Automatic annotation (TrEMBL):
Highest taxon of source: Bacteria
Protein family membership: Belongs to the ATP-dependent AMP-binding enzyme family.
Annotated SUPFAM superfamilies: Acetyl-CoA synthetase-like
Any GO BP: fatty acid metabolic process
One Gene Ontology term of the molecular function aspect: medium-chain fatty acid-CoA ligase activity
Alphabetical list of InterPro entries matching this protein: AMP-bd_C (IPR025110), AMP-bd_C_sf (IPR045851), AMP-binding_CS (IPR020845), AMP-dep_synth/lig_dom (IPR000873), ANL_N_sf (IPR042099)
Residue ranges occupied by any AMP-binding enzyme C-terminal domain in the UniProt entry: 397-473
Organism of origin: Streptomyces luteolifulvus
Name of the protein in question: Acyl-CoA synthetase
Length: 482
């Protein structure tokens, strides 16, 4: 296949490719530094990267990919047990890190290779890599059992990034700003490899903040990638920060992913900036499946339409495809296409269970689809599909309705066993005013009036904060009914 990063040799070398804080690299400097790092790991097999939000991580990953090695990004916040599992499962021969990174005991047994971001080595070309050669092994946060390593081949990265370029009209003139971690596909594949494949630039904030974001958007950044937690902070800050509203209003594209962005936050951001945040839908195993297109209708609460090359269908519980899309019928999303991973490392059983006999990947995500093809995620099959009184109800739409209540700052919805209904709907809220939270009856009436009576919560719990992971996703399994 062709190179993942043609811009390294075909773009003017003086153009800035990467900027992290005060440090930056031009395309010529990146080609030299990645060549140096890649030369040191050539033939090493799998290599780990200590994935801090730094130039060293970006250079190390690009260098290893150019040298034809599979990269295992390590989350620096992982506990010792999780790190130990990932290292024993993936068996990397070395770890790439920044010279001043202090590595934990679990990693110290590996050969350490310090990345020199101003080093110079041969300009490498990964064009000899086969489509199905592994590029990344990314460990998914398993809800049951230890994390599984999803093996992402070169073709999955190339086709996803090219499909997004088509959907978002993403070119080498774009400058992306974000503050995402680099051990997930959102921050690493979309947020670093994406701009480099296009020949554009990425400016990483290090730590996300609205002030730093506004500064970058006012000085040439055209796109922002974020997760709902970041956009929620933006929505909260906008009423008191006209400079932030102006900066966001000048952006070409604002993209949210990794979890659903509440409709309430969509509306607040649009009202203040005149810009619509667009959403896309993907997973570690599939990279990107759908997106609202830059030239399409930005419909709040949906993740758009399938990307070029991606087949998507909804299926009933018995696996039979839903043939007529009405915007109401809930089914599990299954996808097929070149964007998919090749399997879970060392887990042929889990890989086989993840696919149907004819090659469709079972995502475990539940959705409805409008007649014109737009997809609306209603939640995870395991945690967000509630069967109550004979209805299949998605937690997501109830959460959106709750967030429209002025007394609710954050909301999560789960189901719990009920002798009469099968499952009753339970709301977990963070009230806007802890001293005066809205009552259960008031919230039930609020939801029933917006959606339908059978979707109202029967139980309401008030919390100081909702449990979330490092990407801002709510950890519903940590919500206890006790």
């Amino acid at each position: 296949m062709s190179s993942l990063f043609p811009a390294l040799t075909h773009r003017p070398g003086a153009l800035v490719a990467l900027r992290f804080g005060e440090r930056s690299l031009t395309y010529a400097q990146l080609a030299a530094a990645a060549g140096s790092a890649g030369d040191r790991v050539r033939g090493a097999g799998r290599v780990a990267v200590w994935a801090t939000p730094s130039l060293e991580t970006a250079v190390g990953v690009v260098g290893a990919l150019l040298a034809g090695q599979a990269v295992v990004p390590l989350n620096p916040k992982s506990g010792e047990k999780e790190l130990g599992h990932i290292l024993s499962d993936s068996a990397p021969t070395a770890v790439l890190a920044a010279p001043d990174d202090e590595l934990p005991a679990a990693v110290r047994g590996l050969e350490r290779i310090d990345v020199d971001v101003y080093g110079s080595g041969p300009v490498l070309d990964d064009g000899s890599a086969a489509d199905d050669d592994p590029a990344l092994v990314v460990y998914t946060s398993g809800t049951t059992g230890p994390p599984k390593g999803a093996v992402l081949p070169h073709r999955a990265i190339a086709t996803t990034l090219d499909a997004l370029a088509d959907a978002w009209q993403w070119t080498g003139d774009d400058v992306l700003v974000h503050g995402l971690p680099l051990f997930h596909v959102h921050g690493l594949v979309l947020g670093v490899l994406g701009p480099l494949r296009r020949g554009g630039a990425v400016r990483h904030l290090g730590r996300f903040g609205t002030e730093a974001l506004a500064r970058e958007l006012n000085s040439g950044a055209t796109m922002m990638f974020g997760v709902p937690t970041m956009y929620h902070r933006i929505a909260e800050a906008l009423p008191e920060d006209p400079a932030l509203a102006k900066a966001l209003g000048g952006a070409r594209l604002l993209v949210s992913g990794s979890a659903a962005l509440p409709v309430h936050d969509h509306e607040r951001i649009t009202a203040a900036t005149g810009r619509r945040v667009i959403e896309r839908y993907g997973m570690t195993e599939t990279l990107m499946n759908t997106s609202v297109r830059a030239d399409g209708e930005p419909r709040a609460g949906t993740v758009g339409v399938p990307l070029p090359g991606v087949e998507l269908r909804l299926v009933e519980e018995d696996g039979s495809p839903i043939t007529s899309y009405d915007g109401e019928t809930v089914g599990e999303i299954q996808v097929r296409g070149p964007n998919l991973f090749t399997g879970y490392l060392n887990r042929p059983d889990a890989t086989a269970a993840a696919f149907t006999a004819d090659g469709w990947f079972r995502t475990g995500d539940m959705a409805v689809r409008d007649p014109d093809g737009y997809v609306r995620i209603v939640g995870r099959k395991a945690t967000d599909l509630i069967k109550s009184g004979g209805y299949k109800i998605g937690a997501g739409e109830i959460e959106n309705a709750l967030l429209e209540h002025p007394g609710v700052r954050e909301a999560a919805v789960t189901g719990e066993p009920d002798a009469d209904l099968g499952e009753r709907i339970v709301a977990w809220i963070v009230p806007a005013d802890a001293q005066s939270p809205p009552g259960a009856a008031e919230l039930a009436d609020h939801v029933a009036g917006r959606l339908a009576p059978h979707k109202r919560p029967r139980v309401v719990h008030c919390l100081d904060a909702l449990p979330r992971n490092d990407m801002g996703k709510i950890l519903k399994r940590a919500l206890s009914h006790d």
